[in-house]
Design brief:
- It is an enzyme of class 2 (transferase).
- It is a single-pass type II membrane protein.
- It comes from Oryza meyeriana var. granulata.
- With 367 residues, the protein is of the alpha/beta class.
- It has 3 domains: 2-62, no CATH class; 66-113, no CATH class; 120-350, Spore Coat Polysaccharide Biosynthesis Protein SpsA, Chain A (Alpha-Beta Complex).
- It has 12 helices and 18 strands.
- The strands form 5 sheets. Strands 9-8-7-10-15-12-16 form a 7-stranded mixed sheet, sandwiched between helices. A 4-stranded antiparallel sheet has the order 1-2-4-3, with no helix packed on it. A 3-stranded mixed sheet has the order 11-18-17.
- A hairpin with a 2-residue loop joins strand 5 (107-110) and strand 6 (113-116).
- Helix 7 crosses helix 9 (270-278).
- The longest helix has 19 residues, at 65-83.
- Mean pLDDT is 80; it is low at 1-28, 30-61 and 86-107.
Length: 367
């Protein structure tokens, strides 16, 4: 049997012309041009009844139906992979983290980059007065500019701590700081320096920041400049338990029985902060007096703070005649008694603190 076919343009119907069909019921078609009668059978291109489909139809029918269904999905996935590569990377990393979840988290993702988790977390509580707006502004700049050098190793949070706000002016102006920076802490105590403010600070930290929020907690004065990279390097080598860290005084002689860390800035490990909260009944009535010496008396009576780390001469007072004073040294951790802008400027100049400033036509005299 010989088969010839033709298709009507823009139609889904093809006609197959048969010579001597053995089993079809033909219809007669008369060609007026040639005066020839053809016997034909008309078929729908979509419903071939036993006859071979045209060549193009055969090629498509040989492809499995499942492959045709999956083709749009594969194309969509390819487009998403090209347009949103980071999302696929994130999913892969999350899957890997889930597979290794029993090993503990040692990395974290920040801004799309995987970074190592910090070795430790430090809270610096700067005890200050509500009215010292300019000093807080200076300290914010000084400490925030050092954060990039510290971040790979340690997480360092700085908070400005004072007692209840009294004046209407402070309530408004400190509220602006809270709205803009979110780094102020108001304690439930009357404003003071040596009558329980330090105790109120340490005993409030766990309830304010949460259980085990930090590895170390520092109390610092607002006239102390800390070099955060040097501080974090030193704390990284210190014990994480029962730690009492700072500049031990007196500086000019060894007393032995009553040596304590200077109030310029000292660090307690988290377990000691928790102990201060738990020992509230024993400490009650013993919070008045020079705050640094008073805190040491709590530790001594409770048999705590046995891991003492005295970092003299890296922590000292501004150069002068005080026994704890000496000239600036390169490996400085902290300088105390920066009472005015002149002392701050001299200290920052020695440590070349503004070296990263880029030249600009807008401030030629600074450069």
């Amino acid at each position: 049997m010989k088969l010839r076919h033709w298709c009507v343009p823009q139609s889904a119907t093809c006609q197959f012309i048969l010579e001597k069909p053995p089993f079809f019921q033909p219809k007669s078609t008369f060609d007026r041009a040639t005066h020839t009668v053809y016997r034909v059978r008309t078929y729908s291109a979509m419903k071939p009844h036993g006859l071979p489909a045209p060549a193009s139809t055969q090629r498509w029918s040989s492809v499995p139906a499942a492959a045709l269904l999956l083709l749009p999905v594969a194309l969509l996935a390819a487009v998403l992979l090209v347009v949103y590569p980071n999302e696929f990377a994130l999913q892969a990393s999350l899957a890997g983290a889930a597979a290794c979840g029993d090993q503990g988290g040692v990395t974290e993702r920040v801004g799309g980059d995987v970074q190592a988790a910090p070795e430790f977390r430090l809270l610096i509580g700067v005890l200050t007065l509500p009215s010292r707006y300019e000093r807080r502004h200076l300290l914010r700049m000084v400490y925030s500019l050092q954060q990039p050098e510290v971040a790979p190793r340690a997480l360092v949070d700085v908070r400005f701590v004072f007692c209840r706000l009294g004046s209407p002016e402070d309530r408004i102006l400190v509220a602006l700081e809270a709205m803009r920076y979110g780094d102020v802490v108001e304690l439930d105590c009357p404003e003071n320096m040596d009558n329980g403010k330090t105790h109120a600070y340490f005993s409030s930290v766990p309830s304010l920041f949460g259980d085990r929020a930090y590895d170390f907690v520092m109390k610092a004065d607002d006239d102390t400049f800390f070099r955060l990279p040097e501080l974090s390097g030193s704390l990284g080598r210190a014990p994480r338990q029962d730690l009492y860290y700072g500049c031990m005084v007196p500086c000019d002689y060894v007393r032995g029985w009553n040596e304590y860390m200077s109030g310029m800035g000292y660090v307690l490990s988290w377990d000691l902060v928790e102990w201060i909260v738990a020992a509230a009944a024993e400490i009650k009535g013993r919070t008045d007096g020079p705050e640094d010496r008073t805190l040491y008396s709590w530790l001594r009576r409770g048999g705590r703070g046995k891991n003492r780390v005295d970092v003299k001469p890296a922590m000292y007072n501004f150069p002068g005649r005080h026994p704890c004073s000496h000239e600036f040294i390169p490996d400085t951790i902290a300088v105390h008694q920066l009472k005015d802008d002149g002392r701050w400027a001299r200290t920052l100049r020695y440590f070349n603190f503004t070296a990263a400033l880029k030249p600009s036509k807008f401030y030629p005299m600074i450069n």
